[in-house]
Amino acid sequence: MSQPTSFVVAGIQCDPQIGRLDHNLEMIADWSAQARNAGASLVIFPECAVTGYCFDSLEEGLAIAETIPGHATSVLAAIARKLEIHLIVGMLERAPGTDGDQLYNVAVLVGPEGLIGTYRKIHLPFLGVDRFTAHGQEGFQVYDTGVARIGVNICYDCSFPESARVMMLSGADLIALPTNWPESGGCAVPDFVVRTRALENKVYYAAINRVGTERGVKFIGRSSIVDSFGRPLATADDREQMLLAEITPALAREKHIVRVPGEHEIHRLNDRQPDQYGLLTRL
Above 70 in pLDDT, residue 186? Predict the structure, then answer.
């Protein structure tokens, strides 16, 4: 499928309700329709938008989690098919493990043809449901959707620069970060980390947070969509809202930056010195 010259991405900064899957899926459908009417081809929702985040035990999380594919992903695929869009949505996954069912914090990518991919969160803070989830083991995948080549991280992953770098090396045009940044921490991340990940890899970056209060935890919003030079294209405050930005994949793919021809040029890919980075792979 040929890539478009540019397309519109929407980030939905919303307030999911913990444990209310049907309510949250209806909310996702409503926001998706609004985004499509605004011209969006890709719509990104926060971490755990389907399920909520502040669960207090593994058992409580497993009780609300679903298999993938399952009911929630079928509903999301139906939305994507009806609106002819792609969706990235956070939820909890229940999957068989050697010691019983495992719980994963995941983001699913669905399109008009159905489920495209599932990213299981790799870096886990001691916070909310992540206290009980298993680490993803499948690495950082990049998906060619026909709209763009999209990589997915979740929340705390962005604090580890290797995550974005691996996806840049795999050809990502855009990195989507569904997140749940709480008021008690991470407040510098929206201002500095998101823009840095975009700039150092020359990729677009969309960090989409939630708002509201869940079991006493307040979430700060402050979502943003950033261009491949680290410049904000759209930003949010702490209220429910939709962000819109135009993405041009070709700009992310051109890693050679010419500031003064023959005098000041850099290349975000070719200027790396991987043989000097060996310590990064040592435990």
Answer: no
